[in-house]
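Researcher: Please translate sequence to structure tokens.
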Amino acid sequence: MSQAKTLSEQEIKQVLDFISTKKYGVRDRALVLTSHLSGMRVGEIASLTVGHVLDASGNIKGEIRLTAEQTKGKHPRTVFVSSKLREELTNYIRLVRTDDRERSLFPTQKNPRKGFTANTLTQHFLALYREAGIDGSSHSGRRTYATAIASRGVGLRVLMRLMGHRNVSTTAVYIDANDNMLRNAVELV
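Model: Translation complete:
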């Protein structure tokens, strides 16, 4: 099985530009950016409820606490929400019913309360990328997130924790060394 593609800033912009023309563009933008700005797995994103991201005052939380049932490794973890992602979710949440905290953060037309399953969201990401002319998958956001953080010099152990991995070798596979990273690395000497 091949690795998911790491997307460039231009490719992400191309996907977002395409999404902006779609019926559920605001929701789909929030989905794609949640993937790219949090590094969450598709199943974790699909499992999010309004209560996971909104605090008691109706503001976006700085941390999303995932239960063991929501994660691949069955270990609870905390996802830290960047200011960029907080801004995107703030814009998105205005369009979602927030009175029911158990309601899916990303509802679907077919199942508005439960939203996407991991499988349907995987297919949705695939379709969005394909229709935008990008060779991406549901895992592209996660790999792009890991590569972006690594390219800024963040240590592998910190990245491992952010990704929810238990082993550094698992995290290392996610990082795509690009020419820019290599150019910057040689200037450190």
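Researcher: Any highlights?
Model: The radius of gyration is 16 Å.
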